[in-house]
Amino acid sequence: MAPRSRTIKTEDIVETDRIDGFPHPRETLRLAGQDAALTRAARAIRGGHPPQAWLLCGPPGIGKATLAYRIARYLLAFGAKAAGPEDLSVPERDPAALQLAAGAHPGLLVLKRGLNDSGKLMSVLGVDVVRKLQGFFGMTSGAGGWRVVIVDTADDMNDAAANALLKLLEEPPQRAMLLLLSNTLGRLLPTIRSRCQRLDLRPLDPATLEAELARLLPERDSTERAALARLSGGSVGLALRLASGDGVELAREADRFLDNPPDIAAALALADRINRITDGLDGFAAFLHDALVARIRARALQDASNLDRWLDLLARLDNSFTRSSALNLDPRQTLVSAATALNATSRRAGAI
């Protein structure tokens, strides 16, 4: 067997999607509320004719990564055939499941944003990360030689990385599957979208989400879980982040920021409040991103005009907050700049 690549070991993966106190998606065997996407994937895989690239679309925290790892786990355990269960489940003690949970399966490569020289998360998924595919596809592993790549998220790729991935999609290797996760589909190249089959995942309905929160947060009372469900917009991941620390306060601040972009004085006051919270700026940035993505998606269903301006703002805000965190910049200037940009976009493109 070919040697394992260091790029797939747990310690080398920046787990931006891990929520303290809860299993990582690769360790999660349960998938809630996504039966339609799961059924479609299972039919294609167990029928022996899966696509070589799937695009898993939907808001953050609703199960895209959990489904991607579930697909990978089945392929690496059974291959593309009906040898395993209809729901693509794999026994927890199966060797493939154990290796995947440990982040050490030689047939799986996870591409995510890495760390820069100062140990901070990079703002984009660069071409050097995508080029790891060349060496990976020279390996043989898994059931029947299957190799699986998860790109989490494809939205993070810069232009060079996207073009490098596109070349692979144009001439994909045999018995290989690429699973591209996307929170904001409009940020991907149309040529990449056209070469993938879409799996659309939906926000969980209130009853399903509250049932999941009852299982994951048994110590919280039903009233608090219902409030978390309302604030999270159908996202289990967001609900769990809200439940930790000052999450609820930061989420409400992010919503107010979008509803009524503050003037300079109000932005400075907000920055001071956020600065008193541990990792407050990073938390606020995450909730602001999620809230803006949700509003862009809702607007797209009603009126797609001027969405390019809002998508551009989303990218600029993400880059600004990432840069501020990486360089330890004054959060007050970051908040003032964000409010100014939000006000300008609202005037030109209409309120979101």
CATH topology of the largest domain: Rossmann fold
| Low-pLDDT segments, ≥5 res | 1-11
Whole-number total of structural domains = 2
Mean pLDDT across residues: 88
Shape: globular
Strand segment tally: 5
What's the CATH superfamily of the largest domain, by name? Answer: P-loop containing nucleotide triphosphate hydrolases
Using the coordinates above, name the CATH class of the largest domain: Alpha Beta
Strand order of the largest sheet: 2-3-4-1-5
What is the helix fraction of residues, given as a range? 40-55%
The major β-sheet equals: 5 strands, parallel
What is the N-to-C succession of helices and strands?
HEHHEHHEHEHEHHHHHHHH
CATH architecture of the largest domain: 3-Layer(aba) Sandwich
- The first-to-last residue Cα distance is 53 Å
The computed structural class is alpha/beta
What amount of the residues lies in strands?
Answer: 5-15%
Radius of gyration using CA atoms only: 20 Å
Query: How many helices in DSSP terms?
Result: 15
Ordered list of secondary-structure elements with their pairings:
Layout: H1 35-46, E1 53-57, H2 64-78, H3 95-101, E2 108-111, H4 127-130, H5 132-136, E3 147-151, H6 159-170, E4 176-182, H7 190-194, E5 197-200, H8 206-216, H9 222-232, H10 236-243, H11 247-259, H12 264-275, H13 280-302, H14 307-326, H15 331-349
Parallel strand pairs: 1-4, 1-5, 2-3, 3-4
